[in-house]
Every structure is written in C-alpha cells, then in structure tokens.
Batch of 3 targets.
Target 1
Amino acid sequence: MNVHLNTLYVTTEGSYLHKDHDTVIIKVENEKKAQIPLLHLGSVCCFGRVSVSPDLMGAMAIAGIHIAFFSPTGRFLARVEGMPGGNVLLRRQQHRVADDDARSLAIARAMVIGKVANARQFLLHARRDAATEERRAEIGTACERLAMHLRSLPTAATVESVRGFEGIAAKDYFSVFGLLVKRNEEAFAFNGRNRRPPRDRINALLSFGYALLMQDCVSAAAGVGLDPAVGFLHEDRPGRLCLGLDMMEELRVPVVDRLMLSLVNRGQLAGDDFIEESAGGIRLTDPARKTVLVAYQAAKALEVRHEFLDQTIAWSRVPHVQALLLARALRGDIDAYPPFSVR
C-alpha cells in the first residue's frame, strides 16, 4: 500500500478498507496496516481482491474521492464516485458536439495526430540510441511510415477513417517497439500488442500502465465538468468511459511507453517479476506492481514543456490541462482542440 500525490494504491490481496471517523483504515487478515485521513486523498485504486465497506464508499462519494477497481493484471473493472460536478451547460454542449459529425471528426483527428506525432518523436529519439545499424534502419523506416500517416490524417473525412489511420499507425509503431529493449531481451521479447490477457511481459507492463493513465484522464475530464463516458474518437459502448480513452491516446507513448521501457532497460524489472497464469496471461508480481506504481508517480512529478501554453508544467497536470483545453474548444473559446505534443 502506497500513497502518492493524493492517490492511495492498494495492491495487497485480501485487503479490507473501512471508515473510522474521518480516516481510512486498511486491514489485512484483521490486522491494521495503515490509517490515512480522508482529507489527504483524491482517489483510491484497488488491485485484485480488495474490499471496501459501504460506509467508506459513501463518505468518499460525499468527499469527492473516487474509488477504482482493477484486476490483478491492471485491467479496469469499475469506478465508484459521487454525483458529477461541473457545469451542466458544458456537458450539454459536449453531448451536442459528440452528435455533430463534423465537430467530432475535428477533435478525433486532432487527438490521433497528437498520438502519432508523439509516437514518431519517441522513435526518433530511440533510433539514435539503437544497438545496431540494422535496428536504426528498421526504426527509421517506421518513423517514415508514421510521418506518412501524419500527412494523410488531415484528409480523413470521417471518424471511421481516423480510427483506421490510428490502427495502422499503432501497428507500425509497435512493429519496432521490441527493438528498443536493450536488457534481458529474451525475457522481454515483444512481437506486437496483445491484451485481455497480455501474453508477454512487455504487454503486461503496457496494459498496467495504460490502466493507470486511463484513471488519470477520467479524473481530469470529470474534474473540469466533462462527461467521461461521452467521447469523440472511441465508439459509444455501455460502461465504457470513451472520453477517458480518447484523452489518453496522445499521452500513451510519452507517459506510459517511455516509462515502462525505461524500467526494463535500467534493470528495475526482471523476468521473475512476472507470473504466468494458468489461462496463459502474464501479470506482474505484487512487489513489481509496487515498483511500477512508485516509478509512475515519480515520473508524474517531473516537468515537461507544454507547447501550446508555452509553459513548463508537471506531467501530473497534463491530463487536467488537456481537459481544460477540450472544454474551451467545446465552448468555442478557442478555435480547435490542441493535442499535447512532445519535442
């Protein structure tokens, strides 16, 4: 159990959380492990078999603290939160834009352009440090293909075609992702993206990291008064937080992919930090999950240049800033939604 930047991560199987006055008590097998004041929390993320008392859920809902539940592999399961806040007029405008094909297309296209541009920039940096000339050539070819997609995306006439470009670009990006692994290459072999369940260690890391990023984006959207379930790029589906999925697209590579690759290449994670389940999936061990969580929160405390704002901000603020910019674009305060980009 760790508390970082107002998020409590509960990773111990069998943990039970309940309320005692204005604090959260965490117990494992009836033994008290921690006691944290509610006022210190912004969210709680529970992994695996973790129970929360109804009394605590109610208190957190009133306090505006959401609780998210994940499988042991990091797959998002459910989210408990109180009444939505924010301006109802903003949400109504968001719904109108989502039903407007042309305006939805413009936002979806911008988000995918941001995603592909960040993926290409990441590969350009990685190419310089590639182990062999052959690898540099393969990565360079992928960069050229991503540049081609960037030139083509502005011509996409429908959201469906934007999704098509996004899928092809993701395939090109992941086709060389395994070449970026520099340590313990056999254990961390990567032959493409797979999930539900992830079937290799790199995919297990990426899925876990994307689940964390998803929660940050959903929280940012809800925090500025947007409806996390109403998106522009991802298709509507009951129980799906489409706007959270939309917002995380341009942040996947700079926030998650870069960090997970760094943990592997620095030797902070090894092959025995993963468990192969009977169904064939791969998941992190409990100590490894804690290693990733600590690294994820530490990375969020670092600063990055936000090109549109022309300011340096902490990574933890990027989803919130992007949610604010999206709200301004929906209201018409700015001409178009500016995706986040890295240099």
Target 2
Amino acid sequence: MPAPVRIGTCSWADDALSKHWYPPGTPAKERLPYYAERFSTVEVDSTYYRVPTRQMVQGWDDRTPEGFVMHVKAFGLMTRHPVKLEQVPPDLREGLPVDARGRVDRPSREARSAVFREFLAALTPLRESGKLGGILFQMPPYVVWKPSSLDYLEWAREQVGGDDFLFEPRHRSWFAEDVRDELLRWLEERRMTWVVVDAPKVDAGNVPATLVAATTPTAYVRFHGRNAGTWNTRGGSAAHRFDYLYSKDELHEWVPPLRELSNQAEQAYAFFNNNNQTDGVAQAAAGAQLLRKLLEEEEVPTA
C-alpha cells in the first residue's frame, strides 16, 4: 500500500503564520493545537538556534494529539554551523574554543558529543509518546562531498543512535552525476534518510538540486521556494531568503514524484519552508494546503 503523504510547514510559529494564518488574537500557547487540528506533522526549526529543554518538548507533546509527528532540526553546532557561545547550553560552554566574533570555533568531538547528548535527551517526551519523527541535519554549503565530510556524518549518525537521521546537503558537489549513485548507496547502508528539496532553478554552488530518492523507509521532501533573487542576499532573514508563493502549476509538477516516493516508502513527508507572506497570505500554509488538494485530486493518499 502507498504511504500517505503527511504535509506540513517548517515551524508553526513564524511571523507569517502568526500574523496571517491563525485567527486574530490566538494566544501563543494555542497555536500548536490549532495547527495540529489542520496538519498531522510539523518540522521544528527553532531547535537549530537553541537546544530545547525537556520541559519545552514536553509542552509540545502535551499540546498535540496522538499520532502527530514532529521532526526536529538539529542544533547548529551539531551540523558544523557557526554558533554564538551564548546559544550553547550554559552547562556546556566551559572550555569551548571561541573566535574573535564570539562564535564557537572547531570544538572537539568530545565537546560536540556532549551537545548531542543534551539535545537528544531533551527529545525524550516525543520519543516516549511515539511522536518523534526524524532529526534533520541540514549541512552548511561549505560542507562538500569528500572523505572528511563523510567521516563526520558517520560519526554524527552514531551519536543519534536509534532516532531517524535526515540528511540535507546544500553544496552542489553532493548532486554531481558521478556522485549520486555512490552517495545514495552510502546513505542507505547507514540508515540515513535522503532529504529531497525543491529550490531555485539556478546552477549555483550553494543551491541544492532536486534528486528524488528514498534511502530509508522514510521519504522526506522540503520546499524552499524558487526565489533565486533572494537566496544569496547577505544579512537577510530566513523569511526574506525563502520569500516565494508556489503556483498551482509548480506544485502540480510534484504530484508524480510524490506518488513515486509514496509507493517506495513506509512513511512520506512534505514540508514547506517558504516562510513569508504574499498579500496577507502565509506562503507555507498556502502551499501545504494547495499541495494536499492537488494530491487528493490525483488520488495520491495524504494524511
């Protein structure tokens, strides 16, 4: 049987959703329950900026129904991104190397491992309730296809243990024709889920290509929008970078690939990361709702 495609957004609390999708006056604590009545899954992206506390995660669990699935984006230090020292949990800051800009600079594997442990421990409530999906490792664009990158990923996979590991590279070297087959085989052998992306259709080193594939029983697709003009704007916000409202025709292109992934996988997900607004319409929610409608019209199962 095909796996139902669960559709959601990357965050339930970004500005566009808060201002233009929730009913006016909806208190912050009531947004997640409202969201969970309309979508069966969400990607938590705030965890990229801060390691969550167990109390915070327990709150997410308490405010969502049974069967809801939450995927969680790995903290920046776990994916080799620069982070400010104050973003690291206070109990883990001592002894970390810091550069002139106050950013943690090439910490040891031992120090990173401590961050992994605290991050994973905080997710216990979701794990115990069966609501934890995967942990998203979106790598920075300077992590390229080479042995040292694979070594780090293999090490990170070991740290994650039994949780699902979702892998999204952003440098074009991972998508080269002579790399693809080896990469997908390598991921499959290590139980690492390939993340399929939709992004601007330009040939640039830091714009990921679209490679439709599933390397584990989980199929995972992220829609970043196709705004080539804002992708590399320096100093811009995420909302500015992913400022894009998908058209019906653009999303209809995804019906056959999602049908293919649905037939291959045991569980399938599609998330919208285009987190801005157009004429008072929250782009991510609009895209998610339109894609669900298009899939249902083509008899691709959704949830």
Target 3
Amino acid sequence: MNTKQVRYSILELALISEGFTLKQTLNNSLKLAQHVEKFGYTRYWLAEHHNAVSIGSSATSVIIGYIAQDTHKIRVGSGGIMLPNHSPLIIAEQFGTLGSLYPNRIDLGLGRAPGTDRETAQAIRSDFMEAAYTFPGEVEKIEAYFSVNNAHSKIRATVAEGVDVPLYILGSSTDSAHLAAKKGLPYAFASHFATTHLYEAMRIYRSEFRPSTVLQKPYVMVGVNIIVADSDKEAERMLTSLVRMIYSIFTGQRDYIKPPTDMTTDLKDIFKHPQVHQMLKYTFYGSKETVKEQVETFLEETQADELIAVTNVYDAQDRVRSYQLFAEIMDELNAQ
C-alpha cells in the first residue's frame, strides 16, 4: 500500500469547446483555478501547444499571469514551456517577472518537445531541431539566469536573478529522465498521453538520481486522465468527448471539443483500438467509488509523489465537479 501523502494537481490546456470563444474558455480556466484552489490542489499548470484549433494555451506565460492574478495560494506554472521553441533568456525574464509579481507561487516546467507538428515547429524557430538536441545546455542557461551568481556576467536576465521559481523537467520518453536525475530536479511524466515508457522512465530517474541543493530525494509527478461524475454512466457519457478528440488527432481532422453523447458501438470500437487504448491507458473514469479504486491501484504500482490530473470534457461545470470529486478521492486516500 502507498502510505505517503500524495499531492494532486491539474494540467490545463484551455480546451475550446464547440460553440465557445477563446475568451469564454480562458474565463472558465480562471474560474476552474479559483474552484480547485479551494479544493486543495497543489498546482495549476498550463501546457504549451501551437496550431491546434481546440487548444487555447499557446501564449503560456501570458495565461499563467492571468490565472495567478486572480488566485491566492495555488501554485501556477508551465506544464510545460517547450524550451526549444524559445530563447532561454526570454523565458528567464518572463518567469522571473512572474515570480516577482506572485512570490513563491510560480513553477517553471521545461520540456524538449515542440508541442506541435514539425512544420509549425519550424515556423516558430527555424533551428528547432538543433535547440532540441542541446536541451540540457538550454536548461543550464535557465538555471544560470536565475542564479545570483550571474550578476557579473555580460548576459543577464536581471529580473530573474535570485527569484524563487522552481524548475521541473518534463518528459514523455526516457530521455529527460536521465537529465532530471543528473540535475537533481523533480520529474514530471506525461503519461496522460505517452504511456509506453512510464515505468522505465521512473526506474531510470529514481536509480540515477543525484541529490541537489533543491531536492534531496527523487520526486515523481505523473499525468493521468480523470473523469469523475455522480455515476459510472454519466462519466462514460462525458468520456465520449475525449474519445472524439483523440480520434480527431489520429485522423488529422482536429476540431473543437464536441458535446458528449451516449457511448455508441462505434465510439467503443475507437476507444478499444490498440493505438487509442494505449494512449488512454491511464484514463480513470466513473463514479467516485470506481475512480478511487483505480487511482489507489495506480498509486500502489507507481509510488508517485504527485498526480497531475487532466480532465478533457466538454462542459465547464462538469470539469469543476469532476475535479471536486477527485480532490475528495485524494483526500480520502491520503487519510487512510
């Protein structure tokens, strides 16, 4: 049995549902953050994606400021900034500024994937592939810009020096596990969609971990898809929006998030398709009792230090309710 206290947090993509504007979507993201702050969530992270009609979190650092401004204690950050898309200096300046505006509340999660397709990655930064290969060095530049020891360098992010903005390494394969372990940084794995290498990545990270000034022992954060409703049937109905979203990704016909429907035979077949099933392997849906059992088993198997929940459903109120029930589940499991 997992006997430690497990934190629980949220990864937000600001998904745009059919019939809603970006403004309405971001307003709902803020309302959600205000709710989950009261529910006991540790952090609220925004993901960076580009050229996707249904994802509104492209200008990640801007939305982080928007969320942090009208919340009070929940940590707000990036899950993550796709560093090869950016200049480390500019990211240090952006997050150093956020860290000064909202002290002890800003996280900087860093990933090496583009968060988009190859053509868009090239449009963002023509030398993207080179920057991706030098990701460890780019992370070191970020660390240097936040250090007070950088005060005498020719190139400085003056607004970042000495500001407390913790770094997190994100991964969806095993590559970043080695880096996070070597640097002694917390490690977040994107198992809400990249499920294949979760256990191997955790093994590498834990076995190779070197204590650092920021972290004395490994800290693993794991992404899971969570849909909790008042009944199994209602949760299954909410799930249909996610199934359609994944199907649109595989078929290259990305669209806004569709309203839920009954779970038809066709949708069940899509959900059971090997590729879709693998991608959604760590998707826990159902009533509170059903999901609690699934999550408890998952925590025993992974010994994760923190779960990052992703709830991709159509209706904003359904999301709030799902996150409320998930918080109750985590509180009950932590109290056992």
